Amino acid sequence: MASRLLQSPLSVVNVGLESFNDSIRASDASQLVHAHWRPAGDGDPLLAWQLAQLMGGSPGVGDIGSEVDAANEVAVSRMLAAQPMLVDVALRADEIWPELWRDGRRTLTHAGAPVAWSQMCDPMKGTLIGAMLYEGWAASPEQAMAELAAGRVEFVQNHDLSAVGPMSGTISPSMPVFVVRNATHGNLAYSNFSEGIGKVLRFGAYSSDVMQRLRWMAEVLAPALKAALGALPGGIDLKAIQSQALLMGDEVHSRNAAATALFHMAIGGALAGTSTDNEKTRQVLDFIAKTSQFFLNLSMVASKAIMDAAHGVEKSSIVTAIARNGVTTAIRVSGLGAAWFESPSDTPVGLFFPGFKQEDANPDLGDSAICETAGYGGQSLAASPALVQLVGGTVAQAIAYSREMYHISWSRNPSMSLPNLEFESAPAGIDIRKVVDTGIRPVLTTGIAHKQAGVGQIGAGIVRNPLECYVKAVRALAAGCLPAA
After folding, report:
1. What is the 3 state secondary structure string of the chain?
2. Domain that residue 20 falls in
3. 5 band by pLDDT with thresholds 50, 70 and 90
């Protein structure tokens, strides 16, 4: 018996350090399994102890973990019950937020956590320069830059206005915005419009053709969509479109081809029945049909309406926003108020348009990761095998990403089915405790901006959230929930 065992090939399971694999392979082991494991709390004993208490009952402190679990049930139930409906278009953002342009005070919004002009990445600076030109607040890029650098324009992050914007995310006073109402909970959310891909304002481009497109959107596209929505009592059910699009090959963040087609179907008949003249109707429908990412902003604002409903539940450890300003990645947590927990952003890795390479890429940027908090994007990457051709990777990797995300999510969403996972429900509710406990960082699908202003989008890829955001949030939750040592 012993001799037979000695003659059998070695079977080895390696836990932890991958460098051990090399010496094991050198011994001709025919079966090697590497277990991707890291110590809880990122190897920090105090953090591990705080995490243990937040995860389950501990002697002398009561069952804090059960209280967090109960709070998460409330937050995620609100998330799952949310019903985001596109109900209107505000033709000017200052209809919603008069403070953007009042009494000579000029304010522009941006994506991510607060960041000073001097610290901003170049694509965001380019977007703000473009917004200044669009509003007529400057006659040249040089004048716009001087005004911004001198502090003569104030900044506010989109999330503090119940809004989201992709990439640099800027909304200026005269830009139109979508208005979404969560029919279940009554909260409102807002977003600007999608310009398409490539050389566009949100990626930091501000050439004359970019300005011309933005003005057409304000003068033709927005009024036409507003008229069409006025003919649709109750609006358009965005969650229904998102759910259907998952069955049609979108993950409804970086790929929205199916969702855009579904929206085109939902709005087309109503638009044709309005008083909008035939030529403008043709232009609008043609623009939407040719802009496969048109639904991106709608997916984002739907996700914002969903996740705002889940925010503000005391002791909940569910992530309700992920936002990146091109310098830092930041998260908000349901039970931790308006605080942002930030860490330097990683740079997306993916495929690039001809002429560009990885070294040209700016660090992660945009509010669009709100989609991941609602279960789309990287959480549901298994639904979109077509996307992996754009961002780099394989279908097997896309499926593996979604399976991995189950380990850091509180629940599953029965209204979101993933065909390539035998129609399993998508992950629902990123739990900061599980992220820090497992060391698994949330996966985001994303566009990639050139690190220099004015160039625009140069590719698309995948990036993971920095773990440190979640470590900081766990420490803050522990400080609020656990008794002082």
Report:
1. CHHHHHHCCCEEEEECCCCHHHHHHHCCCCEEEEECCCCHHHHCHHHHHHHHHHHCCECCCECHHHHHHHHHHHHHHHHHHCCEEEEEEECCHHHHCHHHEECCEEEEEECCCCCCHHHCCHHHHHHHHHHHHHHCCCCCHHHHHHHHHCCCCEEEEHHHHCEECCCCCCCCCCCCEEEEEECCCCCEEEECCCCCCCCCHHHCCCCHHHHHHHHHHHHHHHHHHHHHHHCCCCCEEHHHHHHHHHCCCCCCCCCCHHHHHHHHHHHHHHHHCCCCCHHHHHHHHHHHHHCCCCCHHHHHHHHHHHHHHHCCCCCCCEEEEEEEECCEEEEEEHHHCCCCEEEECCCCEEEECCCCCHHHECCCEECCCHHHHCCCHHHHHHHCCCCHHHHCCCHHHHHHHHHHHHCCEEEEEEEEEEHHHCCEEEEEEEEHHHHHHHCCCCEEEEEEEECCCCCCEEEEEEEECCHHHHHHHHHHHHHHHCCCC
2. 2-37
3. very low
